[in-house]
Design a protein that fits this description.
Length: 371
């Protein structure tokens, strides 16, 4: 028999007042559609599912009419909406991490007698991940020519190229007409002089007409999008060809593939849990998947880049240019770095990772999606 819940029970379980539930009922947002044995109105499983969506969106700051539009949208199903919700919550978590970073910086500055300006103080509220960490990016993030060649090759004969989540433009081909899209003002401001024109927008809402580019590319950015499938479909909508470089964190045991996540930073698994697996992303745009090996001397300092140069992860500059280290939080970062430092000093790291010494390139789950 289906479980039904009284108004009081639902209020108690969800941590909201009965008055709130009555209000949602009165405005037709969530109506208890069942009856208890004694004839009182009660919430069915479907009602609870709807209420849960409403409350989660409320917690994210959505207005009631906005929520009604979202959850009644016939173009989405429950799983899609849960995924979207999850993405929004992760975005909020990243925003909190960005605010913590900004506060730490201000505390440090104040300890040195430096007072932040009113503008800087107010920026804290708009702190987004890349607004907080973006300025550290160019120190170690640059074009890796062997991987760039793979991306440019996959672009085929495309003359006009849209680069989504473009950052500082490390992978923009110089011999084509490029338009960049980048939501972070800090990242946009760091684009080199003469770089392709850059539009402030997100992948999920590309401000371009259908099929307005020969190709659209996205490099190392999909994991930041709150709705990766929607972003990829947008790329597909505006371009005839789509090329995406991303990370495959699906399948059992993927986090054992790379010693850094396996032995030092298991928290990375929490960051990616629940995100659509790479084959689902590929399916969403009809893409084929190609593995991309990471050369041992990879020039772009992304998370896995230093797989054969472990000492690099002890360098604060290397870590600050990779969002994972901010997203896992300071405690996990300190623990991981101190363990790695010890293991390098005692030879334990070398012992455990003996098999890497002879490799020139490693398969650590990086993938090219080509559609
Ligand atoms: C790791 S950086 C990669 C930048 C650049 N593609 C590169 O390879 O150097 C990730 C970028 O994705 C951007 N980003 C975050 N959320 C986004 C979204 N929803 N749509 C498009 N870009 C986004 C960030 O602001 C950041 O610049």
């Amino acid at each position: 028999m289906e479980e039904i819940l009284t108004v009081g029970r639902v209020a108690g379980l969800a941590g909201v007042s009965v008055r709130t539930l009555h209000h949602y009922d009165a405005i037709g947002l969530v109506r208890p559609s069942a009856r208890t044995a004694s004839g009182y109105r009660a919430y069915s499983a479907d009602d609870v599912e709807r209420l849960r969506e409403v409350l989660a969106h409320r917690r994210l700051g959505f207005g009631l009419s906005e929520i009604a539009d979202l959850i009644d949208d016939p173009a989405t199903d429950a799983v899609e909406r849960l995924r979207r919700l999850r993405g929004l919550l992760l975005e909020q978590r990243d925003q909190a991490a960005a605010m913590v970073t900004a506060i730490d910086r201000e505390v440090e500055a104040r300890a040195m007698g430096i007072r932040t300006t009113p503008t800087e103080q107010l920026r804290l509220f708009g702190a987004k991940l890349y607004e907080a960490i973006g300025s550290a990016y160019p120190a170690t993030r640059r074009t890796e020519p062997r991987i760039a060649a793979r991306v440019w090759d996959a672009l085929g004969d495309a003359r006009t190229v849209l680069n989504v989540g473009a950052g500082t433009g490390s992978y923009e081909p110089a011999d084509r007409e490029v338009t960049a899209v980048e939501p972070s003002a800090v990242m946009r401001a760091q684009r080199p002089r003469g770089a392709a024109p850059c539009v402030a927008a997100t992948a999920e809402n590309l401000p371009f007409e259908d099929q307005s580019f020969d190709a659209a590319m996205a490099f190392s950015t999909v994991h930041h999008w709150h709705d990766p499938v929607a972003g990829l479909r947008e790329m597909r909508r505006v371009a005839r060809r789509v090329v995406v470089f991303t990370h495959d964190a699906s399948g059992a045991g993927w986090h054992h593939r790379f010693w850094l996540t396996r032995d030092y930073l298991p928290e990375v698994a929490d960051l990616v849990a629940g995100r659509p697996p790479v084959d689902e992303l590929a399916r969403a745009i009809g893409a084929r998947l190609e593995p991309v090996l990471i050369p041992w001397d990879c020039a772009d300092g992304f998370f896995e880049a230093h797989w054969r140069r472990p000492e690099a992860y002890l360098d604060e500059r290397v870590r600050r240019a990779v969002s994972v280290w901010t997203r896992v939080g300071a405690e996990a970062e300190e623990r991981a770095v101190s363990r790695l430092r010890d293991d390098l000093a005692t030879g334990r790291w070398a012992e455990r990772n003996r098999d890497l010494a002879g490799l020139d390139a490693a398969e650590l789950g990086l993938r090219l999606l080509v559609a």
